[in-house]
């Protein structure tokens, strides 16, 4: 379970949009509940995507020293790294197998789908927008991610037909 | 012997302890002892062969062991070992919109 203030979510979405067409990434700072099952996010730290420029459209990596720096800063504030966020440019907010391979149980993984309107869109200037934001946790046996929360504001993207949203087969709204 | 700092993302497996004093004369010995002491931690830092997983970085002091002697890097009683997970991910292949 994850709790995220709207202001923190907004910062995540802004970073995801600003990173477009690359993947944006960062760490979620906050506290774990006593039983470790809940992550209470209080702040966010965007970090550099250190992948090669030609790979950043579909990959991110946080350098160990950047991670260490963020963790130390968090500790100074009495916080811990409770999760990771990253964006999927022009791809749904669903973690990939690649994400799963690099994930750890016990954390929240927020994925922001950013749509840039570049691919097969009509010729209309479209600013990148954060389409959907989801949060996932990795099963202890590392077999799968489980959706723990949808984090979009209720009034966001009114054009999305939420009734048709299929968590298993999520695709872009038509 | 070394003082191992556990990153917050792995403290679930060390009863949320952030620093542990672990016996061993090399990084390899320290990590192996640590994994044996915390079996739930083991699969997240070691692979099936007992080697360090590729996405776990180990620092002695401020230096990555890759720039030292790797897992055979010697440690003293006051050595500080940092385990730092490589945080990575990305969209599924092929990149583009899901149908």
UniProtKB/TrEMBL annotation, chain A:
SMART domains: JAB_MPN (SM00232). Residues 1-142 form the MPN domain. This is Proteasome lid subunit RPN8/RPN11. PROSITE patterns: MPN. The keyword Cell cycle does not apply. One of its GO terms (cellular component) is proteasome complex. Pfam families: Prok-JAB. Keywords: Hydrolase, Metal-binding, Metalloprotease, Protease, Proteasome, Zinc. It comes from the Bacteria. SUPFAM superfamilies: JAB1/MPN domain.
UniProtKB/TrEMBL annotation, chain B:
Transmembrane segments: none annotated. This is Molybdopterin converting factor small subunit. InterPro entries: Beta-grasp_dom_sf (IPR012675), Mopterin_synth/thiamin_S_b (IPR016155), Sulfur_Carrier/Prot_Modifier (IPR052045), ThiS/MoaD-like (IPR003749). PANTHER family: SULFUR CARRIER PROTEIN CYSO, SULFUR CARRIER PROTEIN SLR0821-RELATED. It comes from Brooklawnia cerclae.
